[in-house]
Amino acid sequence: MLDASRLEVALSTLGRLLSERGLCYELVAVGGSGLLMLGLTVRPTRDLDIVALVEKGQYVKLRNLPGPLLAAVREVAQIEGLAPNWINPGPADLLDFGLPEGFAERTETKRYGPLVFHVASRIDQVALKVYAAADAGPRSKHFQDLANLSPSHSELIKAGRWAVTHDTSDAFRAQLVGCLVALGVEDAGDRL
C-alpha cells in the first residue's frame, strides 16, 4: 500500500530513473493517490491512477503506459517493494465521455524531475469520486473518500450532473441518487 510518504519516495525514485535515461513524461493523475499528492487524504492506496498522457498540451488516452515508462515503473516497483502496476492507466476510459468541464485548467502540477503530474483538483476529485461511489456503493473506499472531502450540496449536484453523462442508464441514476442522498442531498432525485 502507498501512503503519502511512500508515494513521494517512489515518485522521486521514478523521476531520478527517468532523468538518468533522458526520458520525460507528463501524466494526468486522479483517484486516491491524487488525493494523497494534494494532501487531501491520508488513506493509503494500492496504485496511482493515470487518466491520460499529456502531449503538446493535449490529453491522450492510454491503453498502456509507454514502454520505457512502464519499464521504469516496474524497476521502481522492485526497488520499493510495490506491485508492478503501481502506476497504471486504469481509469483512462473516463476520457471517452469527457472529464468535467475546465478540468485541465484546475489541475495542480507536481514535478519529480522530468516526470510531471497534472493532478485532478479537489472539485474534480469530487466529481470523479461521486461517479465511482455511485457505482461501487456506500461502503466503498470511493464513498469514504468523497465524504472525507466534505463536498457542499452544490458541489455534489454538479458532480452528479457530470456523472450521469458517463452512464445514462436508469440503474446508475438510481444508484447515484442513493449515493447523493446518503451524503445529505435529499433533493438529488429532482436536481439531476
Please give a quick description of this structure:
This protein has 192 residues and is α/β, with parallel strands linked by helices.
Q: Uncertain segments of ≥5 residues (pLDDT<50)?
A: none
Helix and strand content put the structural class at alpha/beta
The string of secondary-structure elements, in order, is HEHEEHEHHEEHHHHH
**What proportion of the residues form beta strands (DSSP E)?**
15-25%
**Count of DSSP strands:** 6
Mean pLDDT: 96
Main beta-sheet annotation = 6 strands, mixed
3D shape = elongated
Share of helix among residues? 40-55%
Rg for CA atoms: 17 Å
Q: What's the helix count?
A: 10
Counting structural domains, the number is 2
Distance between the termini: 36 Å
Please give a structural write-up:
This protein has 192 residues and is of the alpha/beta class. The chain has two domains: 4-120, no CATH class; 123-191. The protein is built from ten helices and six strands; from the N terminus they run αβαββαβααββααααα. Strands 1, 2, 3, 4, 5 and 6 form a six-stranded mixed beta sheet that branches. The radius of gyration is 17 Å and the shape is elongated. It starts with a helix and ends with a helix.
Key structural traits:
6-stranded mixed sheet, 192 residues, alpha/beta, single chain, elongated
